[in-house]
Amino acid sequence: MEIQLEDLEKSKKEMKITVSVEEMEKHLTEAVNELSSEMKIKGFRPGNAPKEVVENAVGKEKVWEEAAKKAIEETYPEAIKEKDLFPISQPEVEFSQLAPGNPFIYKAKFYIMPEVDLPDYEKIAKEIVKKESKEVKVEEKEVDETMERIRESRATRKEVDREAKKGDSVSIDFKGKLDDENEIKEEDFNFELGTGQFATLEGFEDQILKMKAGEEKEFKIEIPEDSGNEHLAGKKIDFSLKLNSVKEKELPELTDDFAKSLHHNVSGLDELKEKVREGIESEKKTENEEALKMKIVQSLIKNTEVDIPDILVEREIDNMKSQLEMQLSQSGVGFEDYLNQIGKKEEDLRSEWSDKAEENVAAAIILHKISEKEDIEVSEEEVEEEVDKHFKMSGRTKEEETQESLERLRSYIQDLKKNQKLFDFLMKS
User: Fold this and answer.
1) What is the mean pLDDT of residues 310-314?
2) Where are the beta strands (DSSP E) in 259-374?
3) Which of 20, 210, 239, 246 has its CB surrounded by the most CB atoms within 10 Å?
4) Do 425 and 121 touch, CB atoms closer than 8 A?
């Protein structure tokens, strides 16, 4: 096998590979055996028909094309390894010569991971950590606010015989009529007054305030021109409403017993507050670390020249689209519906995402190169330990997942762990 390598634009390479006549004989035999095993040829068992018989049955051209595929499958990876290359795209293959009695010659074009002249990344990270690190402080007010949110989460509701006010939970029956054909109707609809659940119907909740259970009311709501709903903007809806019940919120007292009911490992209220304080502190430290990581990455990008292949930018935009589609599907919204709502085409979004995608790719390449230079690796044992933790927390087993899902999870964990190790190194350097 002979290999000639040529540099093209933006980390693209062209490799010309020559496979000798002698080497092609092996691949021709493989092709004949495979084609023969797939055919029914009178007088021969599957896979045992001679070369001439197979060629007569399917044509010499077909046999040579199959042999060429076999040759490429073997020689392309060998050539990549010999030239110590790291392709980031599938090769575009073009036959240059494929004829009996001659060497097989083909060209493969592909992108490789671009070369990067790394800056003094340890110095950059050290300066940012020194300059941007913040001392984490937890104010008593923050602890009190968190404790109040905990009380809110454990609130109970008691039905009361009085006028409704903000903070009360109410049950209503209502009917809204726009015209003879458009009507909405709900019975026993429950919500909390003051939460803005009917924000698009400005003034709707105000109509319920000061009403008592059993009372009924009729009123009109005009939809503002700037409501964002072109079908309803400027129109009036006639409502009829009945208030079924008013429930007052009752918050539990902050006592030692309340603290123990929330956390079996605390002895009382003071210890619960301390754990809340520790939680807030841990959250702030994580936020600070993430902010530092972002600043380090942005500085590395700013101080590094990276010739980014277009294919990687397009691939990252595809990832961004997939993530958006996943988020939308969780809300029950289709991608096309979303585009219609925002009045844009997919090409518009891809164009808007281009700069961010290029930044993401640049960051990934730079971090990969630093990890490579510093020999930062994640062992299979480390990955499998995290995989086991994932399934233990989810209550599922590996056997319930497809092999593809497992490999995707392992790949994700490996990347995550490698980045963690890399930033541990950078932020402590």
Assistant:
1) 90
2) none
3) 246
4) no
